[in-house]
């Protein structure tokens, strides 16, 4: 399973960073960076919640 971002939709609200800081970060220009695209099986449900919390629906899981 992989996490993906639509950078055209992303507004860098950083909600995902707050929920999963080991997966997401913002660079020096406040653009989203995905630190770990491959999601371990034991974190899938957690990342589903992160995806659902994105205010711009810019995140998705590629199963």
Task: Please characterize this protein's 3D structure.
It is a single chain. It contains 2 helices and 4 strands, in the order βαββαβ. The radius of gyration is 11 Å and the shape is globular. The chain has one domain (2-62): Alpha-Beta Plaits (2-Layer Sandwich), CATH 3.30.70. It has a two-stranded antiparallel sheet. A two-stranded antiparallel ribbon has the order 2-3. The chain is an alpha+beta fold and 63 residues long. A hairpin with a 5-residue loop joins strand 2 and strand 3. It is 24% helix and 22% strand. GO terms for molecular function: 3 iron, 4 sulfur cluster binding; metal ion binding. Keywords: 3Fe-4S, Electron transport, Iron, Iron-sulfur, Metal-binding, Transport.
Please tag this protein with its features:
4 strands, 22% strand, alpha+beta, 3 iron, 4 sulfur cluster binding, 63 residues, 2 helices, globular, two-stranded antiparallel sheet
Q: Could you give the topology of this structure?
A:
Blueprint: E1 2-5, H1 15-19, E2 24-26, E3 32-34, H2 44-53, E4 59-62
Antiparallel strand pairs: 1-4, 2-3
Rg, rounded, reads 11 Å
Q: Total strand count, please?
A: 4
Model regions low in confidence, pLDDT < 50 over at least 5 residues: none
In what range is the share of β-strand residues? 15-25%
What kind of oligomer do you see? single chain
What is the top-level CATH class? Alpha Beta
**What is the rounded distance between the termini?**
5 Å
- How many domains? The number is 1
**Averaged pLDDT, please?**
97
- Find the CATH topology: Alpha-Beta Plaits
Taking strands numbered 1, 2, ... along the chain, how are they ordered across the largest sheet? 1-4
Helix % is 10-25%
Helix/strand order: EHEEHE
Largest sheet: 2 strands, antiparallel
- Supply the number of helical segments: 2
Protein name: Ferredoxin
Cofactor: [3Fe-4S] cluster
Domain Divergent 4Fe-4S mono-cluster: 1-61
InterPro entries: Divergent_4Fe-4S_mono-cluster, Fe-S_cluster_ET
């Amino acid at each position: 399973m992989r996490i993906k971002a639509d950078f055209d939709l992303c507004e860098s609200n950083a909600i995902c960073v707050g929920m999963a800081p080991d997966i997401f970060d913002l660079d020096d220009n406040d653009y989203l960076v995905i630190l770990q695209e491959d999601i371990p099986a034991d974190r899938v449900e957690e990342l589903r919640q992160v995806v659902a919390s994105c205010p711009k629906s810019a995140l998705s899981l590629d199963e």
